[in-house]
Amino acid sequence: MGVKKVACTPYVKRLCLAAPALCRILWTPAESQSPELTQTMVFYSSVHRLFLLLAMVSLPAMAQYEVTVEGKAYQLILARDLVAAIQQAPADTTLEYNRIVVQGPLELTGDTLRAALAFEDVRFTNPVVLESAVFLQPVHFAGTHFQQGISLLETRLESEFSCRDCRIVDTANCKRTVFADKVDFSATQFSGAAFFQQSDFSGETTFERTQFEDATYFDQTVFARSTSFQDASFADLASFEEAVWQSTVSFAGARFGEDALFAQSRFAGAATFTAAYFRRAAHFERANFSATASFRHIVFAGPARFVGAHFRASAFFVDSRFKQEATFAGATFAQPFRPSAHFNVAPDLADVTAPSIDLTEPKAKARSVPPLDTADPSCNLIQLVDITQAAGLDFEHYNGFSGEYYYVETFGSGAAFLDVDGDGWLDLYLVNGAPLSGERPDPIPTNRLYHNTGTDGFADVTAVSGAGHTGYGMGCAAADYDGDGDVDLYVTNVGPNLLLRNEGGGSFADATAAVGGADARWGTSCGFLDYDLDGDLDLYATNYVEFNPEKNIVCAEGGIRSYCEPKFYEPVGDVLYRNEDGQFRDVTLETGIIHKGRGLGVAFADYDLDGDTDMYVANDGTMNFLYQNQGNGFAEVGLYAGGRYNEDGLAEAGMGVEFGDWDNDGLQDIFVTNFAQETNTLYGNDGQGQFYDITLRAGLAEYSYKPLGFGTNFFDYDNDGDLDLFVANGHVMDKITQVHPDHAYPQPNQVLCNQQGIRFVDVSARLGSALAVAAVSRASATADYDNDGDLDLLVTNVAAVPNLLRNDGGNRQHWLTIQLGDTSQHARVAVTADGQRQVKEHQSGGSYLASSDPRLHFGLGEATQATVEIRWPDGALQKIEAVAADQILHIIQTKP
Fold it and tell me: Among 116, 128, 199, 457, which residue is least crowded by beta carbons within 10 Å?
């Protein structure tokens, strides 16, 4: 124990005479739940006067001390002082506390409190006990940590109550609590058991994105107004037995890790469980649904029990999957029972009462399926030849590896194909890393620009172009953002991003400070789009996680030092910039981009054919985002439209993503690469605004279960008129083989041949020796860099040289390449040849960290001419007939 010393100003001297106990601060060693006090007690002059006034009127004074918690400065106050301030606060006032640590148990038992309370970023180190109290004014907690739990047992809250983005480490006891107004527990984490039995929620109630890590009890609880548990997760038992919902309730997207108990619950309003996931048993015995019950797109991985349930209105089980037994014995349906679901085991329908019963499963598209034959003639043979060295690409990626296992080292970097000088030949930009631990490599790593010489080679023009950059680079995108006719570059970094403006002729200048776009977080993939259809290009960039090399996290697997898993890092939000007269303004939040994920890939397309550009974001270990363009902003609709989770209702480790019409039905489908032992995922577009996981049906699961995919591209490698797939593979753990001998850090990349829009087969082994070489690959981009009529590949590798794979033989069949200006971003082009119609969109983004050939490439097979139809961004239609094959066609919109 020790005594703290402070400067004895006149204010402090008078305060100590009035309240000597406040002048003695006992030193308490830091404990797991208590932050360490700093050596100096800090008094501010304005606070001195407040303390003096409080002492003069015999009120407890609140001494403040400086505290450091997780690198942030807080003020520490004693709980007894806070209690006194709350108890004696005048009615109809608001007490606001921001970034404080409250030491000692906070007890307000049996009190009637007349002041409003607002706590933001507050940490309670001891129990918070608010039992049998009455709060007459609003109570708000935001970002608050309750280290030893909170109790609202038998308390009455007459006004609004919120606890948003809070963390409750121990038990939350809210039994028999009355919430008379709105309640909001959004994004709160309950680490201990949560008890809400026999409580009353009289106002609108929200538990969206809330995490319950221990058992949760809402038994016999009454919800009088609309209630939402959307995207909530229940890791342990979730009990809602005999609960009453007098209005609508939504569990859409909720995840139940253990048994979910809804037995004898009553749903007076519409009940929505769309896209929920039940890992264990789901109990709805004798539940009563008075209004519509929606169980669409649900996965029941465990038993589903609806014994004796009453459905007094429509009940929808459309496209749900029952993996184990489903029991509806004794259930009553007021409407015909037509689940249109998938049952792995025939359901128990004993004594079911319904006007009619139809168990017909949903039908997939009717297609004739050819025999599974990797030698099918629809998969034409070509050779992919590695010409990296011969083409003059002497670039080698630098990841800053130092043995400290900084997380960024394993993610690689990107590349972009672009025509920097307008000569008709695609040049190549390669992004590089940088030192992380004070190392000074010679030469200093820099991004590199290679000029296409037009003779099957490239020349390094980095120095003369001004395109070099020495930040820790990640991804890049190319487009003419300022409409001056020259292609510009945007580069994402671990740190401030970079905008390089093309000054003409391939000479670049850093325009970030003048134009904007310098997001300083860990940026990954990016792309340009005209989301508001105003004729200029806006910019979207994904961000990954909060990362600081000075606070490196040490992880190990099997006792071996390794890179950490994503769960150790907090996800962050992406960024959307609106182009306003050549200036980028951050419009992220105002356009509805409000969700946080570990973003790695982004792709753009008009998936719903309403005339504007939508977005899909692949997130690592968190749900993916499908952003539907609403005209004045975006709405994340992945929960209802599909694409957020796989068919088992699980979020995967999304890396790269591509839009493409793989089955030539005129609709843009989605392909996402994922972690090892997850399979990559293909989402089919049904034309009604819905996506369905069709990975198994398309034959992709077996080829992607073991590899770890990153970059990916839809591309017609053999010009036969349908889109094949390329996947760049490579693990993220450099010593994975020592822990899991059946896995490898370097892995072979893959080409998957599209068999007439029915399924894919892996033909990698038949396309040359280049694909047999294992590498730690990351970004991938396609381009006809040599203008010979077939698509080539560029793949980047971690801490290694890239691979430029020239397509030899793809141009044995006919082709047509269409070049549109950047002002035509979002144009939709359809090419019809010999009765086969292909549709592509002129969009940026896609893959992982990369930017592909901006021209649209169409394989025509044996056709020698085609019809071209274009829907321009302004809605105008243009049709050109009898277009000769085997050419690069430049098309400019014709206007009246």
Answer: 457
State residue 509 phi and psi, 5-degree precision.
Answer: -135, 145
726-758 burial by CB neighbour count: b if 16+ within 10 A, else e?
bbbbbbbbbbbeeeeeebbbbbbbbbbbbbbbb
In what helix (H) or strand (E) does residue 56 lie, and over which residues does it extend?
helix 45-56
Q: Which segment of 36-50, 355-369, 382-396, 478-492 scores lowest on mean pLDDT?
A: 36-50
pLDDT at 247: 95
* Alpha-carbon radius of gyration of the chain: 31
> Is there a contact between 676 and 743 (Cβ–Cβ < 8 Å)?
yes
- 736 Ramachandran zone, left/alpha/beta (phi>0; psi -120 to 50): alpha
State the pLDDT at residue 787: 97
Pick from 473, 410, 459: which is nearest to 800 by CA?
Answer: 410
Angstrom distance (rounded) from CA 337 to CA 570: 44
* φ, ψ for residue 234, nearest 5 deg: -120, 100
Identity (one letter) of the amino acid at 625?
F
User: Is residue 349 pLDDT above 50, yes or no?
Assistant: yes
Answer whether residue 672 shows pLDDT above 70: yes
Residues whose CB is less than 8 angstroms from the CB of residue 306 and which lie 6 or more positions away in sequence, other chains included: 284, 285, 287, 326, 327, 328, 331
Q: What are phi and psi of 551, to 5 degrees?
A: -120, 50
| CB 877 within 8 Å of CB 871 | yes
Hey, what are 741's tokens?
């001998």
CA distances from 422 to 400, 822, 833, 841, 845 (A): 35, 13, 30, 22, 21
Q: Quickly tell me which residue has 């599209």 as its tokens.
A: 754
The answer on pLDDT for 46 being more than 70 is no
Decide: 604 and 615 in contact? Cβ < 8 Å.
Answer: yes
3-state SS class at 764: helix
Look at residue 789 and tell me whether its pLDDT is greater than 90: yes
Residue type, 24: R
Other CB atoms within 10 Å distance of the CB of residue 396 = 14
Q: 870 near 622, Cβ under 8 Å?
A: no
Tokens representing 694?
């069709």
Predicted confidence band of residue 414 (pLDDT cuts 50, 70, 90): very high
Q: Where are the beta strands (DSSP E) in 756-876?
A: 759-762, 777-783, 792-797, 803-808, 814-819, 828-833, 836-841, 850-851, 856-861, 865-871
- The span from the first CA to the last CA of the chain, in angstroms, equals 87
Between the CA of residue 631 and those of 498, 611, 872, what are the distances in Å?
A: 28, 10, 17
In the β-sheet with 583-586, what is the strand arrangement from edge to edge? 523-529, 538-543, 575-580, 583-586
Query: Parallel, antiparallel, or unpaired: how do β-strands 856-861 and 814-819 relate?
Result: antiparallel
Q: Which residues of 756-791 form beta strands (DSSP E)? A: 759-762, 777-783
Residue 13 has pLDDT above 80, yes or no: no
Say which DSSP state 80 is in: H
Query: Torsion-angle region of residue 875: left (phi > 0), alpha (psi -120 to 50) or beta?
Result: left
Per the rule left: phi > 0, alpha: psi between -120 and 50, beta: everything else, 553 is beta
- 667 pLDDT above the threshold of 90: yes
In one-letter notation, the amino acid at residue 886 is D
* Alpha carbon separation from 235 to 141, 163, 212, 259 (Å, rounded): 24, 20, 6, 10
What is the average per-residue pLDDT within 737-744? 93
According to DSSP, the β-strands at 458-460 and 448-452 are antiparallel
CB atoms within 10 A of CB 361: 11
HSE-CB of 796 using CA atoms within 13 angstroms: 37
How far apart CA 460 and CA 801 sit, in angstroms, is: 15
Tell me how far apart the alpha carbons of residues 658 and 661 are, in angstroms, rounded to a whole number: 10
